[in-house]
């Protein structure tokens, strides 16, 4: 089984976002593998262990992303690929990211491609389905269960709280939803082994991609923080009076009930 | 410059979802003085076309086929592409729902266009229109401009107000017949889990519980309150990790991002990862035993107390209020 996992390096969920001069400050911030991509890596490893084959993790980014790739290797992935666009591209959007990944994947004969259903930074959730479409591959998003039986994938997918039970043939791209599995922590031997596993770096030239091919369709013109909420009112007095006052406030002042 | 805009009317259990009317309002804004064309896809959906027009669509194109009874990305993309080929739109607006999220990137890829997902507001109307969307799950926002090609956006439920329903509006309703073939995904079964039937992402009221609910049964009083208010149940990561409830209820940076009119946080301390998922709610009520809990910093109204005392009292008070209303 030839398995690929699309991963993204993101801010740690515990990080506060600081914007200076319209740019998000990265200095001193902790970076992690996008949590949804961690589910994808874990699932890929489990499928490989059950079915045999190889897991390759792929990311687009700068040199810094090597750290997250090493973490994925330490979890148990076999190979890692960094598509380094740092020198070639000033900006990426979902169109260009998907194009680059699809160009990389098009001759790899992948049986299964996994990714997170969304990245917690940009939050668009587009790249997985876009890559599948560019490869002419079927896809299933927000999966919470995956069983591979020969060439058939038996899948449960989360649809706004409902569960769809479905079947699809490989090759297939799936995106992971929370609940799919419990991602493992890298073990110490895993971390040692990861240092020796292959990590290949490619640039756009290596993929025969012209900068014009990946010109963005959309661009961010401004980033800002939401207005700070003024501190609210903590009610006082007898509990039953507080409850009455609250209902009254929600009805008459806030007008939401 | 006025644009022709396609809007997908999303049907669930025989009715149009509210977000589709919100999408029409967004489409009106994007179109300038252009035309807003509603698109309905399903096995028997044409009867809903009038509703789209009353909410602001100028006309409606329907695609009906037995294979479109259930959503699949293959089936719906074939249907939508047939409409796009016929109409040659300059813009497309979907709701940012499970269906919208699944289908829109495939279509954007087919149409070789950008796609601005999860839009909460729109500034301006013409080529310079800016689409506002949350990033880092609402810890920050960005304004996005479409540089080239089709303007394709999905709008987050509950953020863009729908136009007032106008019973007198009329418009052309036409159909396209499409051969829907080669569906690669077979849906065996749909298991409905959201018991109270109110979808978390579209709910006007969300009652959410955290570690403070202490057990699965601890969610019962919250459910009663949600029922009285016609709201949905949500949860913090702490409550989900502790197995008090299903992960599909989780609100936060991992999990769902919600923006209801009223968010009631019960026994939730307010970790930054939870705040990212709910702090843009219109009105926030916090109920927590710990007066130092950070949830009080984002709450409009707070009660320091035991949720198992406060929530049932609240339920009773709301019952009284709603009976008298």
Word description of this protein:
- The complex is a heterodimer of chains A (257) and B (325).
- Chain A is of the alpha/beta class.
- Chain A has helices spanning 35-51, 66-75, 94-105, 127-135, 188-194, 239-253; strands at residues 2-6, 9-11, 19-20, 23-24, 31-33, 54-61, 79-84, 112-116, 138-149, 152-159, 162-169, 172-176, 199-202, 218-224, 233-234.
- A nine-stranded mixed β-sheet of chain A has the order 11-10-9-12-8-1-6-7-13, sandwiched between helices. A two-stranded antiparallel ribbon of chain A has the order 2-5.
- In chain A, helix 2 packs across helix 5 (188-194) and helix 3 (94-105) packs across helix 4 (127-135).
- Chain A is globular and about 65 Å long.
- Chain A starts with a strand and ends with a helix.
- The model of chain A has no long low-confidence stretch (mean pLDDT 95).
- Chain B is an alpha/beta fold.
- The mean pLDDT of chain B is 94.
- Strand 14 of chain A pairs antiparallel with strand 10 (140-146) of chain B.
- Chain B: This is Electron transfer flavoprotein subunit alpha/FixB family protein.
Work out the radius of gyration of chain A.
22 Å
Question: What is the helix/strand order of chain A?
Answer: EEEEEHEHEHEHEEEEHEEEH
Residue stretches of chain A low in confidence (pLDDT < 50, at least 5 long) are none
Q: Could you say which overall geometry of chain B the principal axes of the C-alpha atoms support?
A: elongated
* DSSP strand tally of chain A: 15
How far from one another are the termini of chain A? 55 Å
Strand content of chain A: 25-35%
Count of runs of 4 or more consecutive helical residues of chain B: 9
- Helix coverage percent of residues of chain A? 25-40%
Biggest sheet features of chain A: 9 strands, mixed
């Amino acid at each position: 089984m030839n398995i690929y996992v699309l991963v993204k390096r993101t801010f740690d969920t515990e990080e506060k976002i600081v914007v200076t001069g319209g740019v998000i400050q990265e200095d001193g911030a902790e970076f992690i593998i996008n949590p949804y991509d961690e589910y994808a890596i874990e699932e890929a490893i489990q499928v490989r262990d059950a079915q045999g084959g190889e897991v390759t993790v792929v990311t687009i980014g700068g040199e810094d992303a090597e750290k997250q790739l090493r973490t994925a290797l330490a979890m148990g992935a076999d190979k890692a690929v960094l598509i380094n666009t740092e020198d070639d591209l000033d900006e990426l959007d979902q169109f260009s990211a998907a194009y680059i990944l699809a160009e990389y994947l098009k001759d790899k004969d992948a049986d299964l491609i996994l990714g997170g259903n969304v990245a917690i930074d940009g939050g668009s959730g587009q790249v997985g389905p876009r890559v599948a479409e560019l490869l002419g591959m079927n896809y299933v998003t927000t999966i919470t269960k995956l069983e591979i039986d020969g060439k058939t994938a038996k899948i449960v997918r989360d649809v706004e709280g409902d569960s769809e039970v479905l079947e699809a043939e490989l090759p297939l791209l799936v995106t992971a939803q929370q609940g799919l599995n419990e991602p493992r922590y890298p073990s110490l031997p895993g971390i040692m082994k990861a240092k020796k596993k292959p990590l290949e770096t490619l640039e756009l030239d290596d993929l025969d991609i012209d900068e014009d091919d990946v010109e963005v369709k959309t661009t961010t013109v401004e980033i800002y923080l939401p207005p700070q909420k003024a501190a609210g009112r903590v009610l006082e007095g007898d509990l039953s009076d507080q409850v009455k006052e609250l209902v009254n406030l929600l009805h008459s002042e806030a007008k939401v009930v | 410059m006025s644009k022709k805009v396609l809007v997908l009317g999303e049907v669930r259990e025989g009715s149009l979802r509210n977000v589709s009317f919100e999408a029409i309002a967004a489409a009106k804004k994007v179109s300038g003085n252009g035309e807003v064309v509603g698109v309905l896809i399903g096995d028997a959906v044409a009867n809903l076309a009038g509703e789209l027009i009353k909410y602001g669509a100028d006309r409606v194109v329907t695609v009906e086929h037995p294979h479109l009874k259930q959503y699949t990305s293959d089936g719906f993309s074939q249907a939508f592409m047939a409409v796009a080929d016929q109409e040659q739109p300059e813009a497309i607006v979907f709701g940012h729902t499970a269906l919208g999220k699944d289908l829109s990137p495939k279509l954007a890829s087919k149409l070789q266009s950008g796609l601005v997902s999860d839009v909460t507001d729109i500034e301006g109307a013409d080529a310079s229109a800016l689409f506002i969307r949350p990033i880092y799950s609402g810890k920050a926002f960005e304004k996005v401009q479409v540089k080239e090609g089709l303007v394709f956006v999905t709008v987050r439920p509950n953020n863009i107000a729908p136009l007032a329903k106008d019973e007198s509006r009329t418009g052309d309703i036409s159909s396209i017949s499409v051969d829907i073939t080669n569906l690669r995904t077979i849906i065996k079964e749909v298991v409905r889990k959201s018991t109270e039937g109110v979808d978390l992402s579209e709910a006007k009221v969300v009652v959410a519980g955290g570690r403070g609910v202490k057990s699965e049964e601890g969610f019962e009083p919250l459910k009663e309150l949600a029922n009285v208010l016609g709201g949905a149940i949500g949860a913090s990561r702490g409550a989900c990790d502790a197995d008090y409830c299903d992960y599909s209820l989780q609100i936060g940076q991992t999990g769902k991002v919600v923006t209801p009119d009223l968010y009631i946080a019960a026994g939730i301390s307010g970790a930054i990862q939870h705040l990212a998922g709910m702090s843009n709610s219109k009105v926030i009520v916090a109920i927590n035993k710990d007066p130092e809990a950070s949830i009080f910093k984002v709450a409009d109204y707070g009660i320091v107390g035991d949720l198992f005392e406060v929530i049932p009292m609240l339920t009773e008070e709301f019952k009284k209020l709603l009976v008298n209303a």
